[in-house]
Amino acid sequence: MIFKMFTYVLLLGIIFITGSLAVQEESSEFALAQRERRVKDVRLAMDDGTKLWTRIVLPRGSSFDDPTANITAVMDRSPYGYWGIESLTDLYIPKGFAAVCQDMRGTKRSGGRFSIWHSDADDGARTIQWVSEQIWSSGSILSFGASADGLASFTLLDTHPEELDAQFIIWSSAQGYPIIFPGGAYRHSLADSWMADTVRTWESDRCIDEVKANEQPGDWWEPLNMTARHDDFKVVKWPTLLWAGWYDIFLVGQMIAYDGYKNHADPANLNDVKIFVDPLGHCQEGAAEFPTNTVAGRSALPLLMSYELYMSTVTGQPFGNATTEFMPYRHDVKDVTFYVLGALEDDASGNYWTTMDNFPEFVATKFFLGEDGVLKQNSGEGTGRTYKADPADPVPSLGGSNLFLACGPYDQSPNLDRSDVLTYTTEPFDAAMALTGPLTAHLSVTSDVVDTDFYVKIMDVYPTGEHKLIQEGAVRMRNTIFEDMKEGETYEVDVDMWNTSYVFSAGHSIGVTVASSNYPRFSNNPHNGLSLLDPNLFNQNYTATNGVLSSSYVTLPVVSLDQLPRSHVIEEINEKFADYASYGVDLAEKAKQGFAFAAENQEIRD
Prior knowledge:
It holds the Pfam family PepX_C. This protein is an alpha/beta fold.
């Protein structure tokens, strides 16, 4: 039920900010196009005989029997059903595109068992082939995918169908393992809740167990780790638009995907990938925190760019090199566009949009975790600090990149008085300091148990005492060093805290915490070294004495403010298309009605 609300919010957020796309056609014409479209539902057989429910929608005035139609299709394959995300492809019908919507195997009205994306490369390629062979088809297929649908779109790198001519992927990931097991720690809330809410009731437990059985990287994850193999990107011969979010559950997979498409694809197409990073991604709850320069925490720009992307495959104009009716500011919008985060207070540095040809070069700057709790740029002396971590009393999760939990830049202060949370803080800054790029930590750690976790958080420390979360990372030792820890030994581990673009205002400080639990975002670790599926996992709980040496440090991507110029063009685009909010709300209300209709017809399970 929770995820149904998310998919409705996704529809609301996207359609709300892009109602103007329809208004450019005049709302009556758009409505007419919707009423007079041609719809056909088929059960398309895959290579193994499994039949997948597939809906094809042709634009007004078209016919399924017209060999001269020459229509290009926008395809979305989804586990959420037609009224989940698939129907978003309808946005492109008024411009003459067909919409192809398919329920992934084992979900909604399709047959088979949910394969956890292991069959999607083949299923997607088979569907593309079938669509391209239809009498009305131009032979060109454009991929659309948000969230789980985007994962299916990324798997097409494995099969790279010849008919695939563009990809638009929203808040998704080309990686599997680092999303579900970042640093080897199991994202309990995300994985368990998503499976239970999305996959058929009798299949969800099987899927959860299958994921837990593969808690270490290995062959099982290969179909979902496109970005682990740069050779996969060499097959890319099509333009791509990626839409990510700084507080999104999939951020790291989207950022690494951008690097793959940009730097490892066909050399002839290196400039045909663009990325847009908003503040939130899936974290719609955080919209209230970003009222400036956004609409419902979003921007209209990536949807406008998607029209340009898809139209470029029809007109032959290069993606991003021509002014179109959808992109009147085309030459002012570069390949990389993102929101620069800042403190959530009046007159704070940050909280604006920027656009540039590439992400800025940064200076990787180390801040050491001093024994005195001070975060400083020179390595401190001393042995470090220790704490006891009791599995029976885990540190509660507060905000961050979540889906089923509270998300966004939550204040971490409620956890800072705990004896099992180590806190480190810089001196307040005299002037604003900016970060843009990847955040990492290198920890020198000890423990008296065979297995434990380490969770690192980066925060903005306000003069008022609030500690607002920017990013965080995890390490589960048994899935990182692949052996039992030994008391008295020191272990060196790296923690990936994903990426950000953030400006600390003058008077603010950088804060870092280290702890050994973060529940329920991550599964609790009983410190016994047993696997997630071991029936005795929680029958043997041990309090750990963990140590963090003063040689530990975080590495932050420091940039100058001059490298992050404010783009007033993006703000103008947001203001322009916010005028059509009422029309977007009407469309979103229709989407909500679609949910009710689908529920009555058991299209979406309760």
